[in-house]
């Protein structure tokens, strides 16, 4: 049965020449992840509950989008993207959530982090030209560090 689940997950994350993935998860303690390469890729991870981990990587993926939405407490996201004209959109709603985002070798790209709740943290590193980083936090006890190189 686990083999079928792994095969189904792989089929969702890798789906053809314009790669696309969607990983919805409900409850707590899940690990969601995937990676895509190639132009015009889309990856989405949605997690509901607490103690979830999302790990996502897009490399050599110009004109691509990566979306992670986590609802609940103590969730974590580790995201990487190396591409031009691409975007990372991360939403965390709850408490004690954290995100680490790296976007490298990019041009005309953007990172947007939105965190709502208490004691959330965001670390964003971007090595890019003509690109932007936005971190929006609402609540108390939150912290954010953003760097552009």
UniProtKB/TrEMBL annotation:
<feature type="signal peptide">
    <location>
        <begin position="1"/>
        <end position="20"/>
    </location>
</feature>
<dbReference type="Pfam" id="PF07012">
    <property type="entry name" value="Curlin_rpt"/>
</dbReference>
<keyword id="KW-0732">Signal</keyword>
<keyword id="KW-0281">Fimbrium</keyword>
<dbReference type="GO" id="GO:0007155">
    <property type="term" value="P:cell adhesion"/>
</dbReference>
<dbReference type="GO" id="GO:0009289">
    <property type="term" value="C:pilus"/>
</dbReference>
<dbReference type="InterPro" id="IPR009742">
    <property type="entry name" value="Curlin_rpt"/>
</dbReference>
<protein>
    <submittedName>
        <fullName>CsgA family major curlin subunit</fullName>
    </submittedName>
</protein>
<comment type="similarity">
    <text>Belongs to the CsgA/CsgB family.</text>
</comment>
């Amino acid at each position: 049965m686990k083999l079928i689940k792994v095969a189904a997950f792989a089929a969702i994350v890798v789906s053809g020449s314009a790669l696309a993935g969607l990983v919805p998860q409900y409850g707590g303690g899940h690990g969601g992840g995937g990676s895509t390469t190639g132009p015009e890729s889309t990856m989405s991870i949605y997690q509901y509950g607490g103690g979830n981990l999302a790990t996502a990587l897009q490399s050599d993926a110009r004109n691509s989008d990566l979306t992670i939405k986590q609802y609940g407490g103590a969730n974590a996201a580790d995201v990487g993207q190396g591409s031009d004209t691409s975007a990372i959109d991360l939403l965390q709603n709850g408490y004690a959530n954290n995100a680490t985002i790296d976007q490298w070798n990019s041009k005309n790209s953007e990172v947007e982090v939105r965190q709502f709740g208490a004691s959330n943290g965001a670390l964003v590193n971007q090595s890019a030209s003509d690109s932007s980083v936005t971190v929006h936090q609402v609540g108390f006890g939150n912290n954010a560090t953003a760097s552009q190189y």
